[in-house]
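ESCALATION

Customer reports they have been waiting on this structure for their group meeting. Please prioritize. Original submission:
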Amino acid sequence: METGIVVAVITAGASLLVALASIVFSLRREQAGDWRKVKFEHYREFMSALSGIVGADVTPEGQRRFAQACNTVQLVASKQVIEALHDFRDEISGSNPHRSKERHDALLSRLIREIRTDLGLSQRSNPPGLSIRLWHSGVDSIEPAKEADPPR
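Update from on-call: job pushed to the front of the queue and completed.
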């Protein structure tokens, strides 16, 4: 075979390999982005359900929603998130006679940091010492406005 033909065949083959590799990497990146979106939605629902059991905002429906979110999030969560979730659930369980605010706060912070790590946040945005707190609405602590006396 002539040198020119060999060079043309090698060049064409290399171009095809580069194009194929580009397609494969693009598909993988797209799939990773889709998976991150799925995880984010599960974690968003989990955080929303968790917010429904904070302080005076606790309701039986909120407890059910939180339990469902905990169960469902395990479908997409990393091993580290699942372990942190189990530790947190054990701490807040009504059957735990040794509950403490300090342990609750530490385990909650660990859980949320693991979720943030699983979602791909950088170490700089998600440092080990990051403290997480939840707020309740405070609605029950606000007295309802008194109605004005009707005009006479």
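Sent to customer with the following note: The two ends are 111 Å apart (CA to CA).
Escalation resolved.
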